[in-house]
Every structure is written in structure tokens, then in C-alpha cells.
Design goal:
Strand order of the largest sheet: 7-9-15-11-12
Number of strands: 26
Distance between the termini: 136 Å
Number of helices: 1
Helix content: under 10%
Radius of gyration: 52 Å
Largest sheet: 5 strands, mixed
């Protein structure tokens, strides 16, 4: 038998064990612990009890990969980029036309504005307005936008958002001298008040006596009483709006006067214009009559003063007294080049589709053949319709040719061989002819235009161009002004990439003598310089009528750095600070471009590192 003390001790130990077991709850004592103090336990739905910003109902941050509100996923941020997310009320975040406040399209089964329903297009109460059009009670035909408002009845008849307040019974709202309390039965109508003149039979109680006065008998049975405006109730032909017989001294239509007669003209063909020989006198035009009398053929609706003239039929459709006026010949332009076939003509007021006024095309089946078209030399075709194919001439680099233009539409074509990325310069000089200007074109082998110029610079017309590929290129010269009967010119092309193999090297301080043998000739030289060297190039005229040695300075890539034709102390000079180490180039030509020949001396000096 156990002692009482041992029994008590055993009971205490068992109780402690039971209490400890009850606190565990199967999860090491942590399942119902609010570890992050956010007010939610794991058993209450907290999906991350170590982060106080994550719990059921927390604000969701869209697109961050975290499920803040423990609803099982992260919210997508404005998937349709309409400015609203699902949490902001977007009921279709995959459609940018659906969001809170969007324009609702009635009856399409779609809730564009996310208000929970689609607006119906039907006018249910047939009052002329749908709910989509602003009807605030589409089951009541007396309520719609603009309806007459009944004041003080608690109903918004005109759908403006409020019920109208009734006027003060002692206020004369229509300013007719009577208030509601003084017996005005329509204080919004100044023609209705106690004692007003009553209009019989109109359904309105003008004098506020409670009834509309009935009209007296219609004495002549024409449907109008004296009260209704019948000015002679003994004659059934006289009443308001009756047919007026002009100039008979009787006011048939009760408008207060007899109408004078007017002349009207028969319009037999219904074109709105009448025959001046067929007239009636009346107060208004009878059926088939009009006020106009200018139709020159009232049996043909296609003939009247506003009709369109039909060419070459000998008929005066527009009644101006002459036939076929304004007509002209137009010529078929089958190839759409703007020039017509002289053998295919029509006569019309304006050119029909596909016709032009010009008739000088020599081949209307080829859009590349027409007067003034680019001539392709030596191909056997007369592209410019001058009656012949042009001959091709081949030009060598730096070889100056003399040629002429025989008339204002003449042209000369030349060819040369170039290489890809080669920089070429084409120069033409006017050597004679009144108002003559040699316009220069550059074409590729397929006669696609690459460049052109009529700009005069330093006495010449020139093009500088980088060739796109190896092959044949074409030069064309014609008169830019197109008004000279003839003219002559010099032409040359040069390669600015290899300078046609004609560059002479110069040493610092060495004076050389050289010549220019034609007015488009040039001489080229090279020297080696260093960055920041100040160099001076000097040329002096040593002989030749009107000869002036113009000096250019170029960098290693033949980009122009400086030039001069200004004479100072008898010399022409350029002073320039070199931008980098490398080879530099000097060009000398005749500035005036009009000397047959000339001679000069040339030297270059280094002013930074004087020549030894």
C-alpha cells in the first residue's frame, strides 16, 4: 500500500505531462504561433508566417513573384496596358478596351465599363431614347432627356439628375401680371392668365376659367369658323390657306391681301428650266410650270443652261448659242509617260482617262521613249524621239574634250570605266553660246541617274561622286537653260581616288616651274606633313594672258582643307595648320578658266619647322 504522499506526488507529475502534451498540438508547438506578429496563424491561412507583409487579405503587389494576400498566386500587373489592374477593378485584364469608365457599347453582350452589366440598346418605353442615350427610366415613356419637367413631384422627368423646384406661388414667373396665387393656371406661359383672350376649340384654357371655349358654327361648311380665322364664313372658297386666285380683288386664303399674278413657264421635260413661249399667269406655279424661262429645247431634259456640252455632235446642250464649244483634241497615252500617240485622238471637253494634250510620242507602247527622254547611246533605239540613236563616246581620265550642242534640246553622251568606291569629278566649262549652260548628268551602266548639276562654281559646272561598283558609267551634257540655239563646252572627268596617276611629289622649300595647257587643265602635287605644322603653299603667275594659278590644299583622303584665288603681292597662297601626320595634296588650276595656257612657279614651306 502506497503512502498518501507518494499518491499526491504521482498525481502532480501526471497533470504536468498532460498539460505539456496539450500545448504541443502536433507541430512542435509552432502551428498556432504568430511568428511574424501580423495577426494571422498558419492554421488561419498565413502562407508565410515569417513575413509580416504576407497574410490573407494583404495588399497584393502585382508582378513581383510574391503571393502577398495568400490567394494562391501573384497578381499580373495591367496585362492589357489599359491603365487598370484586376485589383483596380479591371474586369477583363486581357482586353485593353475593357476597364472602369470605358465607353460602353450597348447590346453587344460585353461589359466595357466594368459596372456589372451590358447597357441595352433597345428603347423599352418607346420614348425615343435608350438607356445608352441617357434615358434614366427606360420603363416610363414620360421620362427621357429633354422631357417637360414637373416641378416638386420628386421625379426627374428630363434626366438632368434633379427634380425641378416649383416656383413660388406669389412669383409671376412668366411676367404676364398674374401669379399662381392670383389665379394664373400656367405661370410658365405668358399667353395664359385670368381674363386672357380665349381661342376656341384649341384644347387650351387661355383665360384660366377651367374649360376651353367651344367654337361657333362653321357657316359655309368649309371647315373653318370665324374664330378659327375664316375671313368670310359665307363663302366656302374663302378660308385660311385656300387656293388664292391672283389679281381678282379677293383674299381667298385669309392672309389679309389678294396676291398679284406672276408669269410661269411650262417645263415639259422636267429639267427645272421652262419654255419662254409657253406661259401662264398665276399666284403660284401650277404643276409642270417653273419660274425659269431659259430652256432652249423643252422636249429634251439633257438640254438646258446647266447641261454638260457633248463634243462633236453639233448640238448646243448648254443653251449658250453655240455647239461643241470648249472641246479639244486629246491623244491616247498608252504607256503613261505623259506623251500621246498622234494617230489616236478623241475630241472632248476635258481629257478622258488615259488621254493627254501632247501628241509627240514616237513609241506609245514604251514608257521610256518620249521627247526629252534620256537617250541611251548605241542601243539602236531613239529614246528621245529626235529621229536618231545617239553615238557613245569613251572618255579617258583627265583627257579634256571639246564639244558642242547644236540646239536647245540637243545632248551629248559619253562613257568611262570606273571602280567601286572611286571618287570621280566631272567638269564642264561653257566656251561659247548665248545663254548657254552645260548641264552635267552622271548615270550608271543601266542609265540610272546618280547625280546631276547646273550649279555654277568658279566658272565651271561640276559633279563629285563616289562610284558604287566596278563598271561602265555615262556622262550626259545638255543646255540647262533650254533656250540656246547652240553652244560649245569643254568636258573632263578625273579620278580623285588615284588622280589619274598624275601626282608629283614636292619637298619642303623646293621651287618648281610648271604649266597649264588648257583652261580645264590642272596640276597635282603631294607632300608629307605632321600634325599641327603650319604650312604655306605659294603659286606665282609667270606667264599667260588672263592666267591666275588657283591653289587648293587637300588632306590625305582628298577632303578640301583650304583654297585661294586672292592675289597678294603678286602671289596666290594658302596658309593652313595640318590636322594630323600624313600625306597632303596641292592642286593648281586656272582660276579664270579662260586662258589657253599659262605658266607658274610653286613652293610649299613649313612655318612650324622651317625647311632645311
Amino acid at each position: 500500500m502506497r503512502s498518501p504522499d507518494k499518491l499526491i506526488l504521482t498525481a502532480i507529475i501526471l497533470t504536468a505531462i498532460i498539460l505539456i502534451a496539450g500545448c504541443d498540438n502536433g507541430s512542435n508547438g509552432q502551428k498556432d504561433a504568430d511568428n511574424d506578429s501580423d495577426g494571422y496563424f498558419v492554421s488561419a491561412g498565413d502562407c508565410d508566417d515569417n513575413d509580416a507583409s504576407i497574410y490573407p487579405g494583404a495588399a497584393e503587389v502585382c508582378g513581383d513573384g510574391i503571393d502577398q494576400d495568400c490567394d494562391g498566386g501573384d497578381e499580373v500587373c495591367d496585362a492589357d496596358a489599359d491603365g487598370y489592374t484586376v485589383s483596380a477593378g479591371d474586369c477583363a485584364d486581357d482586353d485593353a478596351s475593357i476597364y472602369p469608365g470605358a465607353a460602353e457599347v450597348c447590346g453587344d453582350g460585353i461589359d466595357q465599363n466594368c459596372d456589372g452589366y451590358d447597357t441595352l440598346c433597345n428603347d423599352i418605353d418607346a420614348d425615343g431614347y435608350t438607356a445608352y442615350e441617357g434615358d434614366c427610366a427606360d420603363d416610363d415613356a414620360s421620362i427621357y432627356p429633354g422631357a417637360a419637367e414637373v416641378c416638386g413631384d420628386g421625379i426627374d422627368q428630363d434626366c438632368d439628375g434633379v427634380d425641378a423646384t416649383c416656383p413660388d406661388a406669389d412669383t409671376d414667373s412668366d411676367a404676364d401680371g398674374y401669379t399662381i396665387s392670383a389665379g394664373d393656371c400656367a405661370d410658365d406661359d405668358a399667353s395664359i392668365y385670368p381674363g386672357a383672350a380665349e381661342v376656341c376649340g384649341d384644347g387650351i384654357d387661355q383665360n384660366c376659367d377651367g374649360v376651353d371655349t367651344g367654337c361657333a358654327n362653321d357657316g359655309d361648311g368649309d371647315g373653318y369658323t370665324i374664330e378659327q380665322g375664316d375671313c368670310d364664313d359665307n363663302d366656302p372658297d374663302i378660308y385660311p390657306n385656300a387656293y388664292e386666285i391672283c389679281a381678282d380683288g379677293i383674299d381667298h386664303d385669309c392672309d389679309g391681301a389678294d396676291d398679284p399674278c406672276a408669269v410661269f413657264y411650262q417645263d415639259a421635260d422636267g429639267d427645272g428650266f421652262g419654255d419662254f413661249e409657253d406661259t401662264v399667269n398665276d399666284s403660284a406655279p401650277p404643276d409642270g410650270y417653273v419660274t425659269d424661262s431659259t430652256d432652249c429645247d423643252d422636249n429634251d431634259a439633257g438640254i438646258n443652261p446647266v447641261a454638260t456640252e457633248v463634243c462633236a455632235d453639233g448640238i448646243d446642250q448648254n443653251c449658250d448659242g453655240q455647239a461643241d464649244e470648249g472641246c479639244a483634241s486629246y491623244f491616247l497615252d498608252s504607256d503613261g509617260d505623259g506623251f500621246g500617240d498622234p494617230e489616236t485622238a478623241v475630241i472632248d471637253i476635258s481629257p478622258p482617262a488615259g488621254y493627254v494634250t501632247d501628241n509627240s510620242d514616237c513609241d506609245d507602247a514604251d514608257a521610256d521613249i518620249f521627247p526629252g527622254a534620256p537617250e541611251v547611246c548605241g542601243d539602236g533605239f531613239d529614246q528621245n524621239c529626235d529621229g536618231q540613236d545617239s553615238d557613245c563616246s569613251t572618255l579617258e581620265c583627265d583627257v579634256i574634250v571639246s564639244d558642242s550642242i547644236s540646239d536647245s534640246l540637243d545632248e551629248n553622251n559619253y562613257a568611262f570605266t570606273g571602280t567601286a568606291d572611286e571618287v570621280v569629278e566631272i567638269i564642264a566649262l561653257d566656251t561659247g553660246g548665248t545663254y548657254f549652260s552645260p548641264y552635267v548628268y552622271l548615270f550608271d551602266a543601266a542609265w540610272t541617274e546618280l547625280a546631276k548639276t547646273h550649279t555654277l562654281s568658279e566658272g565651271v559646272y561640276s559633279i563629285t561622286y563616289t562610284l558604287p561598283a566596278d563598271g561602265t558609267y555615262h556622262i550626259r551634257v545638255h543646255d540647262y537653260l533650254s533656250n540656246a540655239s547652240s553652244g560649245s563646252y569643254h568636258l573632263v572627268w578625273r579620278s580623285r581616288s588615284d588622280q589619274c596617276g598624275s601626282i608629283a611629289p614636292l619637298d619642303c622649300g623646293d621651287i618648281i616651274s610648271d604649266t597649264i595647257n588648257t583652261n580645264l587643265h590642272e596640276r597635282l602635287y603631294s607632300f608629307t606633313g605632321s600634325a599641327d605644322d603650319s604650312v604655306e603653299v605659294i603659286a606665282q603667275d609667270t606667264g599667260g594672258t588672263y592666267f591666275s594659278p588657283y591653289v587648293y590644299l587637300y588632306d590625305t583622303a582628298w577632303a578640301e582643307l583650304a583654297k585661294t584665288h586672292t592675289s597678294s603681292e603678286g602671289v596666290y597662297s594658302v596658309t593652313y595648320t595640318l590636322p594630323a601626320d600624313g600625306t597632303y595634296y596641292i592642286k593648281v588650276h586656272d582660276y579664270l578658266y579662260n586662258a589657253a595656257s599659262g605658266s607658274f612657279s610653286l613652293v610649299w614651306h613649313n612655318r612650324t619647322n622651317p625647311c632645311q
